[in-house]
Fold this protein.
Amino acid sequence: MRVTHYARRSVAAGALVLALAGCGKDSSGPSEFNPQGTSADISAATAAFATEQMSSYAVLGADISAALNASPVLKISALAVRGLDATRAARDLAAIVPRRGAFQASVTSIPSALLGTTFVWDVSTGTYVASGLAGAPSGGVRFKLYAVDPVMLRPVEPLVELGYVDITDHSSLSAVDVNVKVVEGGVVYLEYDVTAHSTATGGVLEIAGFASNGSTLANFDLTATVSDVNNSPVFGYAYHVDVPSRDLTLDWTVTISSVSDTEVATTIDLVINGPNGNVHLAGTYGVTARTLTVRVNGADFATVNLDGVDPVITGADGQPLDAEDEASLQAIVGFYLNSGGKLDGLSAL
């Protein structure tokens, strides 16, 4: 099934979710919103995921998947961690999870014949190849990571090693259970478990762990679901991120339903909590509903109209936001677009 341009337009809704987080606070938060402080909080959260090691793993995730007989689960998790692209993960989940019944054996992440193998990059073929190097986990595999060209998305030559990723497989024929750990110089930059199983009407994939740049740590838990409701697919995402050093938490859920050639309903619910402000944004975006509401401390704060090409944000009094809030929103929009707000990923379904 291919979702039409209505799904793509839900990008506008998603792009606003964290943007509007900079505008307010919940009743349990500070009495005043601090835009500069919120921008600093968001920058810290971004920095936890912005390391060369994680970028290398994300870029080379498809190549790692190909070396493991095109393991789809590893490809999904690598893409998701690359900015925690929740919707892309769920899109790919929909492709491998049967509408009913168990996972196929082909989604088990690591063929048994490859266990204990360390893979290195072969510049002559542009692929990962098995090596005789030791160190890989006995119940998994190891892939060397390399500096990548940000434009070509290939390892630079001559190769520059950036550590390695260990992938340990505990999967069965009916469920996926894989641990991923990115390490360099004894420092763990990323570690998470990816689990997946079928339900009576679809499937569930969860990616839970932490990312760190060596100074700031962010815990994350992403659950993506796909199910059939009256023979129509429903996609759901529940995403939690917390940065302990900043006392910052981000919680949002997105549900996409009523998928057809002319309609797709995207329901958004976001709460961001931090020492510099808290806010709750909610709404449903579709063909007939294109307005989201923002409430701060239980009171109306802003509305977002998505009828046009670009979203129009107005305060509760119908007036534009002031310049200081606008400046803060730009930084927060950038974080959101790189951390799961890519709702246009569904257009490829």
Q: What stands out?
A: Residues 1-50+247-349 form one domain. The longest strand covers residues 217-229. Confidence is low (pLDDT under 50) at residues 1-27, 340-349.
